[in-house]
Automatic annotation (TrEMBL):
CDD domains in alphabetical order: SIS_RpiR
Protein's recorded name: UPF0309 protein GCM10015535_58260
Annotated source species: Streptomyces gelaticus
HAMAP family documented for this protein: UPF0309 (MF_01240)
Family: Belongs to the UPF0309 family.
Source domain of life: Bacteria
Residue stretches making up the SIS domain: 36-221
Record-linked NCBIfam families: PRK02947.1
Phylogenetic classification of the source organism: Bacteria, Bacillati, Actinomycetota, Actinomycetes, Kitasatosporales
A Pfam family that the UniProt record links to this protein: SIS_2
Amino acid sequence: MSDSKLAGQFFDAAIGLLERVRDEESGNIAAAGAAIADTVAAGGRLFAFGAGHSSLAAQDVVYRAGGLALMNLLTVPGTVGVDVMPATLGSALERVDGLAGAVLDSSPAGAGDVLVIISLSGRNALPVEMAQNARALGLKVIGVTSVAYAEGTRSRHSSGGFLRDHCDIVLDSKIAIGDAELTLDGIEAPFAPASTVVTSALMQAMMAAAAEQLVERGVEPPLLRSGNVDGGHEWNGRVMTEYQDRIFYRQ
């Protein structure tokens, strides 16, 4: 069987996007890493939020081997992944006004903490209000989104604003409107989305920048090791005990 031409084209598209965010977002990635390092060094807490498939990139930095132990997932019931039935309910919940405020009010997040909000389009009420409410509570907000949507679509929030309008730092994933990299004669819809690949890479680059900043300040980054290597569980147990007041996924 010959190699797939379209598979190769997808890799090329994804690599091109990764090169763009590496080169064009380097300053914002460094700023986001510095904000996280500031919070870790000051005794603050870290949270990540995303709805639908954007939650994948948020989950990718929580309780992760090689990741910061202090990153917690801020969850909104019914919007994390596609486990809710029907799956379309998750998309509907993203457009509900007031949901973000209720979630934040009942969460441990507070002034001085960092919240990373991931939303590809940034146009729905949930991510916009999450950013607005978080900043009102005194959190620093890092948005990971596609600025193209803010320039080529209409907001679904009553303010007319997008996620990017309510963040302290914005990382632009450069994903085109529609999130599909390939087309082919005979297939009516575009296909092969790359947002998860690029957004997850942005998240990991940001975390790497944070670790680098912490070391420069003389602070040991509270990193987790793989539980599948010898000594990993013991290492993680020590880290989680030392930072237990800032880790909420164990409680």
